[in-house]
Amino acid sequence: QKLKINYSTYLGKKITRNVNLFDYNYNSGGLSNDYLGKLVKEKIISIKDDNIMFNNNKVVLNDLLIIPTNYKLILNSGQNIFFKSNSGIVLYGDLISNGSSVNPINFYGDKDNTNYSGYILGIGPSDIFMNYVSFFDFSSTNKLDIPGSVTFYNSNVKLKNVNFNTNSSEDYLN
Fold first, then answer.
1. What distance in Å separates the CA atoms of residue 129 and residue 133, rounded to the nearest whole number?
2. E strand or H helix that includes residue 70
3. C-alpha distances in Å from residue 44, one per residue of 58, 119, 135
4. Which of 135, 133, 120, 128 is nearest to 154 (CA)?
5. How far is 63 from 42, CA to CA, in rounded Å?
6. pLDDT tens readout for residues 94-140
7. Cα 142 to Cα 148: distance, rounded to the nearest angstrom
8. What is the end-to-end Cα distance of the chain in Å, rounded?
9. Burial of 147 (0-12, 13-18, 19+ CB in 10 A)
Protein backbone atom coordinates (compact mmCIF):
# COMPACT_ATOMS: atom_id res chain seq x y z
CA GLN A 1 0.00 0.00 0.00
CA LYS A 2 1.35 3.42 -0.93
CA LEU A 3 0.46 6.92 0.05
CA LYS A 4 0.00 9.25 -2.91
CA ILE A 5 1.16 12.80 -2.24
CA ASN A 6 0.53 15.71 -4.61
CA TYR A 7 2.34 19.00 -4.14
CA SER A 8 3.75 21.95 -6.06
CA THR A 9 7.24 23.43 -5.99
CA TYR A 10 7.76 27.10 -5.32
CA LEU A 11 7.97 27.56 -9.11
CA GLY A 12 4.54 26.00 -9.53
CA LYS A 13 5.66 22.63 -10.92
CA LYS A 14 3.13 19.97 -9.90
CA ILE A 15 4.64 16.75 -8.53
CA THR A 16 3.07 13.44 -7.51
CA ARG A 17 5.03 11.02 -5.34
CA ASN A 18 4.12 7.56 -4.21
CA VAL A 19 5.54 7.24 -0.71
CA ASN A 20 6.23 3.71 0.52
CA LEU A 21 5.36 4.74 4.06
CA PHE A 22 3.05 1.84 4.80
CA ASP A 23 5.36 -0.83 3.39
CA TYR A 24 8.04 -0.44 6.02
CA ASN A 25 8.15 -2.78 9.02
CA TYR A 26 8.47 -0.65 12.15
CA ASN A 27 9.62 -1.86 15.55
CA SER A 28 6.02 -2.28 16.73
CA GLY A 29 5.06 -4.30 13.66
CA GLY A 30 3.48 -1.71 11.40
CA LEU A 31 2.23 1.81 11.02
CA SER A 32 -0.39 2.29 13.72
CA ASN A 33 -1.21 4.30 16.80
CA ASP A 34 -0.14 1.44 19.09
CA TYR A 35 2.98 3.35 20.13
CA LEU A 36 0.95 6.45 21.05
CA GLY A 37 -1.28 4.27 23.24
CA LYS A 38 1.77 2.68 24.85
CA LEU A 39 3.26 6.10 25.67
CA VAL A 40 -0.06 7.21 27.22
CA LYS A 41 -0.19 4.00 29.31
CA GLU A 42 3.39 4.57 30.47
CA LYS A 43 2.46 8.20 31.38
CA ILE A 44 5.07 9.60 28.99
CA ILE A 45 2.31 11.37 27.04
CA SER A 46 -0.94 12.96 28.19
CA ILE A 47 -3.97 13.59 26.01
CA LYS A 48 -6.45 16.29 27.04
CA ASP A 49 -9.25 17.10 24.63
CA ASP A 50 -7.42 17.14 21.26
CA ASN A 51 -4.00 18.09 22.70
CA ILE A 52 -1.13 15.59 23.01
CA MET A 53 1.71 16.61 25.32
CA PHE A 54 4.88 14.99 26.68
CA ASN A 55 4.85 14.87 30.48
CA ASN A 56 8.62 15.37 30.90
CA ASN A 57 11.27 17.65 29.48
CA LYS A 58 13.37 14.65 28.37
CA VAL A 59 11.64 12.05 26.19
CA VAL A 60 13.18 9.10 24.31
CA LEU A 61 11.24 7.73 21.31
CA ASN A 62 12.04 4.16 20.27
CA ASP A 63 9.43 3.79 17.56
CA LEU A 64 7.19 5.74 15.23
CA LEU A 65 4.87 8.19 17.01
CA ILE A 66 1.78 8.95 14.92
CA ILE A 67 -0.30 12.04 15.71
CA PRO A 68 -3.83 11.40 14.41
CA THR A 69 -5.97 13.81 12.40
CA ASN A 70 -7.73 16.46 14.52
CA TYR A 71 -5.10 16.23 17.30
CA LYS A 72 -2.26 18.63 18.17
CA LEU A 73 1.17 17.63 19.42
CA ILE A 74 2.19 20.48 21.73
CA LEU A 75 5.84 20.84 22.74
CA ASN A 76 6.91 23.33 25.38
CA SER A 77 10.04 25.33 26.13
CA GLY A 78 12.96 23.24 27.34
CA GLN A 79 11.73 19.90 26.02
CA ASN A 80 14.35 17.54 24.56
CA ILE A 81 13.15 14.73 22.31
CA PHE A 82 15.64 11.91 21.60
CA PHE A 83 15.05 9.52 18.67
CA LYS A 84 16.50 6.02 18.66
CA SER A 85 16.95 3.76 15.63
CA ASN A 86 13.95 3.61 13.26
CA SER A 87 12.00 6.24 15.16
CA GLY A 88 10.23 9.39 14.07
CA ILE A 89 7.03 11.41 14.25
CA VAL A 90 4.33 11.28 11.59
CA LEU A 91 1.82 14.13 11.78
CA TYR A 92 -1.67 13.74 10.41
CA GLY A 93 -2.59 16.39 12.97
CA ASP A 94 -0.94 19.65 14.01
CA LEU A 95 2.38 20.48 15.68
CA ILE A 96 2.85 23.45 18.01
CA SER A 97 6.48 23.79 19.18
CA ASN A 98 6.95 27.04 21.04
CA GLY A 99 10.37 27.21 22.66
CA SER A 100 12.19 30.30 23.84
CA SER A 101 15.67 31.74 23.34
CA VAL A 102 16.58 30.65 26.88
CA ASN A 103 14.81 27.25 26.74
CA PRO A 104 14.59 26.01 23.14
CA ILE A 105 12.98 22.76 22.09
CA ASN A 106 15.62 20.28 20.89
CA PHE A 107 15.25 17.18 18.75
CA TYR A 108 18.17 14.71 18.77
CA GLY A 109 18.77 11.82 16.39
CA ASP A 110 20.97 8.91 17.45
CA LYS A 111 24.33 9.98 15.99
CA ASP A 112 25.93 6.60 16.75
CA ASN A 113 23.29 4.75 14.76
CA THR A 114 24.10 3.30 11.34
CA ASN A 115 20.38 3.20 10.46
CA TYR A 116 18.27 6.33 10.23
CA SER A 117 17.10 7.96 13.42
CA GLY A 118 14.96 10.97 13.88
CA TYR A 119 12.67 12.39 11.27
CA ILE A 120 9.43 14.32 11.26
CA LEU A 121 6.91 13.80 8.47
CA GLY A 122 3.80 15.98 8.23
CA ILE A 123 1.28 14.46 5.85
CA GLY A 124 -1.33 17.19 6.22
CA PRO A 125 -3.47 18.97 6.03
CA SER A 126 -1.71 20.16 9.17
CA ASP A 127 -0.78 23.40 10.86
CA ILE A 128 2.88 23.40 11.85
CA PHE A 129 4.37 26.08 14.10
CA MET A 130 7.97 25.97 15.33
CA ASN A 131 9.69 28.73 17.29
CA TYR A 132 13.13 28.32 18.89
CA VAL A 133 13.53 24.71 17.79
CA SER A 134 16.81 22.93 16.96
CA PHE A 135 17.49 19.61 15.24
CA PHE A 136 20.70 17.64 15.88
CA ASP A 137 21.94 14.47 14.13
CA PHE A 138 18.68 13.87 12.26
CA SER A 139 18.65 11.61 9.22
CA SER A 140 16.08 10.46 6.72
CA THR A 141 15.72 7.09 5.10
CA ASN A 142 15.31 5.91 1.54
CA LYS A 143 13.14 3.05 2.81
CA LEU A 144 10.35 5.55 3.43
CA ASP A 145 11.08 7.65 0.34
CA ILE A 146 11.19 10.80 2.47
CA PRO A 147 13.36 13.49 0.86
CA GLY A 148 14.40 15.26 4.06
CA SER A 149 14.77 14.67 7.78
CA VAL A 150 11.93 17.16 8.34
CA THR A 151 9.30 16.99 5.58
CA PHE A 152 5.83 18.50 5.33
CA TYR A 153 3.21 17.82 2.64
CA ASN A 154 -0.04 19.79 2.27
CA SER A 155 0.65 21.68 5.49
CA ASN A 156 0.61 25.29 6.63
CA VAL A 157 4.10 25.77 8.05
CA LYS A 158 5.45 28.68 10.07
CA LEU A 159 9.08 28.43 11.22
CA LYS A 160 10.87 31.02 13.36
CA ASN A 161 14.31 30.64 14.93
CA VAL A 162 14.74 27.04 13.71
CA ASN A 163 18.23 25.52 13.42
CA PHE A 164 19.50 22.35 11.76
CA ASN A 165 22.82 21.02 13.07
CA THR A 166 24.94 17.98 12.06
CA ASN A 167 22.06 16.35 10.19
CA SER A 168 22.46 13.73 7.47
CA SER A 169 19.82 13.53 4.75
CA GLU A 170 19.24 14.60 1.17
CA ASP A 171 17.72 17.81 2.54
CA TYR A 172 17.28 19.02 6.07
CA LEU A 173 13.87 20.50 5.35
CA ASN A 174 11.25 19.91 2.66
1. 10
2. none
3. 10, 19, 21
4. 128
5. 14
6. 999 999 999 999 988 877 765 555 667 777 778 999 999 998 877 65
7. 10
8. 23
9. middle
